Amino acid sequence: MMNKNNLTVSHLHVSYHGNEVLRDINFTIETGKLIGIIGPNGAGKSTMMKAMLGLIPKDSGGIEIGGRPIQEIRKKIAYVPQRSNIDWDFPIVVKDTVLLGTYPKLGLFRRPTKKDKEWAIECLAKVGMENFANSQIGELSGGQQQRVFLARSLAQRAELFFLDEPFVGIDVSSEEVIINILKSLRDQGKTVFVVHHDLTKVEHYFDDLILINKELIGAGPVDRVFRPELMQAAYKTPLSMLGSLGVGV
C-alpha cells in the first residue's frame, strides 16, 4: 500500500481546436482520501480527470504523486469512465468484464489463472453482483452496469481510483452500494477521485473537494471549499439561489 503522499497538479492547460477548456489548474491534495471534483456543466471536470490520467492530450502541465510522475504508477490506477462512453452492445459477460481488471498486472502473453478468475468473482460479490456473473453486460440496468465496472476496478488491486460521474442514471440502492465501497477503499488508505454533480450529497460523500469552472476555484477539505462565496464564483449563481443547490447560506 502506498504511503500517504501528496498528489500535485501543476499548470494544467487543456484546449480543444484552439478553445481553452482548462486554464492553469494548480492544486495539491493529500492521498488516502475520498475527493469530489465538482463544478457546473461544461466546467471541464471530466476533461481534467482524463488529462490527469494522460487519456487526452494537454497543452501543458504536470501531475505527480509523492514527487513521481503519474505515468510511473500507471498500473496502480483504476479508471471508471462515464457510462455514456461505453459500448454496452459489446458481447461480453459480466465475469469476463471484471476479469479484464486483472490484465494490467498479468503482463504480455499471460492468461488469467484460476486464482484470477476466483478473484474476479470475489470482486463481483463485493458489489453484490455475483449472481449476474454469466449475464451479458448490455442486459443489466444502469446501476448494475456501474457496479460491474466498479468490480473491474477492484480487480485491478489499484491504489488510486478515478470515477467519472458514477452516480448518473443509477438507482438509489446501487448508489448506496457504490459510495459505501468507495468509503471503504478510502478507509484502507486508497485514494478515490469522483467527478460528481449532485451537490446535496457532497458533505456526506467526500473528505476533500476540487471545485473548478475552467480554472480552479478551490481545493481542500469540504468545509473550506463548499462555501457560498466559492460556489457562487464557480456556478455564477446568486447567493439566494445556492440553497437549491444544497449549499448552506
Characterize the structure shown.
With 249 residues, the protein is an alpha/beta fold. It has one domain: Rossmann fold, CATH 3.40.50. Helices cover 31% and strands 25% of the residues. A 6-stranded mixed β-sheet has the order 6-7-8-3-9-10, sandwiched between helices. Strand 7, helix 6 and strand 8 form a beta-alpha-beta unit. Helix 4 packs across helix 5 and helix 5 runs parallel beside helix 6. It is globular. The termini are far apart. The model has no long low-confidence stretch (mean pLDDT 88).
Short description, anyone?
One of its GO terms (molecular function) is ATP binding. By secondary structure, this protein is an alpha/beta fold.
List keywords for this structure.
249 residues; alpha/beta; Rossmann fold; 4-stranded antiparallel β-sheet; 25% strand; globular; transport; ATP-binding; AAA+_ATPase; ATP binding
